[in-house]
Write a structure and sequence with these properties.
alpha/beta, Aspartate Aminotransferase, domain 2, Aspartate Aminotransferase, domain 1, seven-stranded mixed β-sheet, three-stranded antiparallel β-sheet, binds pyridoxal-5'-phosphate
Length: about 350
């Protein structure tokens, strides 16, 4: 089946096959990688290769530290305020969908958060124009969500906010196209869409920002301590880290992010084309310039068709197309691991469904 789940999302088949082949006996050591100490030479090698491969894949400069942490993207949303904003300092947020709202909620106990732009009055169907943003004078950072997984809204360009460090949630679009990492203070992402299985998050942080005092916090919430401890302050999620490492190797072998950028552009263009050419049978309500390449929410013209659409799609091997409960309708998540054949099959199914139920 082709799995269009928004996350945990589909993993590349060769990665699952390799994990299966190595599950009981990793590289002949006589034990599974999940049974080995995170401080042993075997796992240390897995961890080091994963970091090196992601650095290569995303062209991450040396003055950025990388962390592989637990807690998901949501925990990082809270930790950024604790680590990078002093008590009472203002932080700026661009809220362009559900996850931007979540990010804001996570920092409100700690800092004065200014909503510099809010797409909610427009139903999160567009990103408010740059001229309308109300930026603070001395913000500790500006946070935005590069791709809104539920609303299907994606920034086409990195926001230009001068010298204010940019902190961005790339959970659902990381490593989907080339990115100038040097433009960011912090990039974070839960792995479970483009990078691997749920249970590990990647945090890429400009080292200079780690010198900020931030707020009083326990060591386990302190990015400096995690950097010093090489993401092994406590027992790390070794299985998830290992699987993510296999995904990085697969992506490099497939041609890297430049190749995935092309595939992703073709995949999303095909789906939007089917939707836009359906004469209103299907509709996507997001402004064309900010439509997501990763998550394509769409509605059928008559809600009564939702059930048959999902049932017939499932029978055709096209699964997890039900939209998020906040929006209803359908959503096709088409991350790096979704092959082009999967999207072509969905496009053909949508056209066929329209003909039969039109
Ligand atoms: N941010 C974005 C853009 C997401 O899509 C998600 C999850 O779907 C999250 C944050 C929350 O991630 P987690 O469940 O890893 O905390």
């Amino acid at each position: 089946a082709f799995n269009f789940s928004a996350g945990p999302a589909t993993l590349p088949e060769p990665v699952l096959q390799q994990a299966q082949a190595e599950l009981l006996d990793w590289h002949g050591v006589g034990a599974s990688i999940v049974e080995l100490s995170h401080r042993g030479p075997e796992f240390m090698q897995v961890a080091a290769e994963a970091e090196a491969d992601l650095r290569t894949l995303m062209a991450i400069p040396d003055d950025y530290a990388m962390l592989f942490l637990q807690g998901g993207a949501t925990a990082q949303q809270a930790l950024i305020a604790l680590n990078f904003a002093a008590p009472g300092q203002t932080v700026d947020y661009l809220v362009t969908g559900h996850w931007g709202k979540t990010a804001l909620k996570q920092v409100q106990p700690y800092v004065a958060a200014n909503v510099a732009a809010n797409g909610e009055p427009g139903g999160f169907r567009d990103i408010p124009a740059r001229e309308s943003w109300k930026l603070s004078q001395d913000a500790a950072y500006l946070h935005y969500t590069a791709n809104e997984t539920i609303h299907g809204v994606e920034f086409g360009e990195i926001p230009d906010v001068g010298d204010v460090p940019l902190i961005a949630d790339f959970s659902s679009s990381i490593a989907s196209e080339p990115l100038d990492v040097s433009k960011f203070g912090v990039i974070y992402a839960g792995a479970q869409k483009n990078l691997g299985p749920v249970g590990v998050s990647v945090v890429i942080v400009r080292r200079e920002l780690l010198e900020r005092a931030g707020q009083p916090r326990a060591e386990i919430f302190d990015y400096r301590a995690h950097v010093k401890g090489e993401s092994m302050l406590n027992t790390p999620p070794t299985w998830n880290w290992y699987l993510a490492g296999l995904v990085f190797k697969w992506m490099l072998a497939e041609g890297g992010v430049a190749e995935f950028a092309q595939r992703n552009a073709r995949k999303s263009a095909l789906l939007y084309q089917v939707i836009d050419n359906s004469g209103g049978y299907y509709r996507n309500e997001v402004a064309a310039a900010v439509r997501s390449r990763m998550n394509v929410p769409f509605f059928l013209h008559d809600e009564a068709l939702d059930k048959p659409f999902l049932a017939e799609a499932q029978a055709a091997g096209l699964i997890s197309l039900k939209g998020h409960r906040a929006l209803g309708g359908m959503r096709a998540s088409i991350y790096n691991a979704m092959p082009e054949e999967g999207v072509q099959a969905l496009a053909a199914f949508m056209r066929d469904f329209q003909q039969r139920h039109g």
